Structure formats: C-alpha cells, structure tokens
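Worked problem 6 (solution included).
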Amino acid sequence: MKTLVLITSNYPFGKSDPFPGTELPFLEKAFDRIIIISQNSRSEQTHKIPGQVKIFRYNTSTSPAGFLKLPLLLAENQKLIKSIFQKEISFRKTTGTVLSLSMKVLLLRKIIKALQLRTFIIDMLRNENITRDIVFYSYWLNTGAHAISLLDYPGSIKIARAHGSDLYEEKADAGFLPLFPLVAENLDSIFFVSEPGKKYFMKKLISGKAGLNVSRLGISGPGPLLYNSGETLFRIASCSNVIPLKRVHLIIEALELVKTGKKIHWTHFGAGSKLEDLKIRAAGLKAKNSNAEADLRGFIANEEIMDFYRQNKISLFLNTSSTEGVPVSIMEAQSFGIPVIATAVGGVSEIVTEGTGFLLPHDFKPEELAGKIEYFLNLPPAEEKKFREKAFQNWKQKFDASVNYPDFINSVNRIFETAIKENPAD
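Solution. The predicted structure is:
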C-alpha cells in the first residue's frame, strides 16, 4: 500500500496556502492512502478535504511539554545537530558568507524545529502502523522539507517543492534561508515551480544527491473568454495577501495617476497585515482620480473569486509583488483570458510572456504602471482580443492542471519505483 504524507504550511486551514488543493484531486488517484500534516494548529478549516484523506495538525510552537522534552531531544541528537550545523557553516564559507550570531541562532532554531517535526511524523506513522512504501512530500522548501530530510524508511522517498518565499534568500527577513545543504543532500528530488527558481538554486553552488526538476503548478479550467460582455466599466483585478512584500499600495498610487475618461473599477482579493492601511489609502482614491474606485474584498474563498471572473469581464490583472515564485493568481487570470501586468521577479517571466501582458522592473515607479494601464484602456477591440486569446493559450500550454499534475505524479512514481526496487518488501 503506497502512502503519501503531505506536509503543508497551512492547508487546509486558514486564509493562505490554498495551492495544494488544486493538486489534491490528482494525488488522490495516485495513492492508496493520503495523510496531510498541516503546520497550522489554530485557524479554522477553510478548504474541503475528501473523507478518505486523514489530517493531522502540528503545532510549530514548542509547548510546555515540548520544552520539558527539549533536553532529551538535544541529548539524543547532539552529534546530528553538530554535524548539520557545521556543514551549514562550511557551505556558507564556500559561498563567501559569514554567518552573524543572529543567523547562527536562527540556524540552530531551524535544526531543532526540524527534529521536533521529525519526531511528530515518526510518532504519527507508528500510531498509524505505517512502516514503508511512503512518499514524504513537503509542499514548501521549509521546515517540512528539513524534517523529512532526516527520515529514513525502507522503500520510501522524500521530495519537496520550491516556490519563491522558501527559495530566494535575498527577500527573507534574516537575509538567508538555513538548511539548503541538508535538503540538497538528503531529499530524493526538489521540484521547482519555475526554471529561474531551479537556476537560482544551482547558482548557489548547492551540490547533493537530490534531483533538481522543474514542475510547474497548474489550475483547472477553462474559463469563458469574455470579449464584449456589455460592461461599461474597465474592470481591474488583483489577488494576493496584503503584506509588505506584495506592495498592493502601488496599485492605488498608479490608479491615482491614470488619465482616462473611462470608469475604472479595481477589485482586490486578499487579506493581511496591511489591509487596514490599504483601506485608508483606497478611501482617498476617488478624490485624486474621479474615474477610479477601489473595492477591497479581503479574504474570499477561491471558488468565489473564480465565479467573479466568470460573471464579469475583467480587462486587466495586476501583480506588484517584490518577490514571487510563479503566482497561481496569474494562472487563474490567464485561464479566463485576462491580460496581466506584473513585476519581473522570480518565475513571473515564465507566465507573463510576449503578447499576454507586460512585465515591469522590480523597482518600478507608479507612473510606469499607470502608463501600462492606460495602454490597455485605449486598446482597440481587435488588439484586446489578441491579448486575451494569447493569455488563454499561455495558460493552456503551460499551466493546465490536467497536464502538469499528472506529469508531476509520473515523475514521483518513477523515483518511487526505483526506491522499491532498491528496498523490496520482505
């Protein structure tokens, strides 16, 4: 019996990390048993899960009982901790990076967190009487990937995806992401959601046993290609968490500068720490541009967002992030034939290509975004149709879930079959 142990940051709980849900229907068909370990122990469940999928919640905060067990954990793994710590330090020196004291403290914390999650996984598998033929799959290249790197079960494999925030060190708060050497050496494969992501990892001079592959995410479709839906508004949409890295405020600053006689209605889907600040800014938009209005929806379930796209002709989708992997939100927009303006960061250049929209430099000015919006506002219908059809075809060729996820599962199965041959059941 083949078991999938899928480790997520939040899914199926909370208002972020919905992405594994697009993959789960395909994984269901490929495995006899699926177990999800979510590192979200507080939020309500926001995504429906098939009844045959078992969910465990792991509290990433060390509990009082966990603190009592910490000395034993450290004592039992003293040599392992020292080895991992020293390998990280040595690796950083080869790349010209000398870790500060705060970085070393973070590194030690990450090693301990990995060991704690590893213990949780081992205990869970023991209670479930699962001993072999397991695919350990961390959806992010973070603590989940670190923890499964430290597991060893016969006839089993360990894989992880790498996106953006878990990959690009320059955008991390601490300026570095610990334990790249650990995952490179101990995972069977790392699946990057974009080619630039894979190249970035390789440029870090990461050597190890893990296979490095590109496996794009995908979304189901198609949506209707709306050309002349009777809309009198020029509708703009955006969808992201409202946090500093996403820089959603730049959309407001650009809309304040747009010169047009048409009415613009901008809808943003997503919540976050900066939502209240954004609402205050949005309240003053009308005063600076009488033709523009903002509608900040906050957190909205993905199904409702898709219904919004189906029922309204969206003329333009915007993404102003300072860092990204390959945004699923852009895939969703393109599946409805919506042109996109986005920053050229991470793997965005793989999805916003010639004829599907425009890329902006990382440090673009609001005036630049305003100019691109004006371009689409003044686009003749025939040219608009070309953009919409090209956007749709780009989704169909590169980001169709019905193609990408079966391909990913086939790759995983090949790795798994090799492991079974090397470690056959008794």
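Discussion: The two ends are 14 Å apart (CA to CA).
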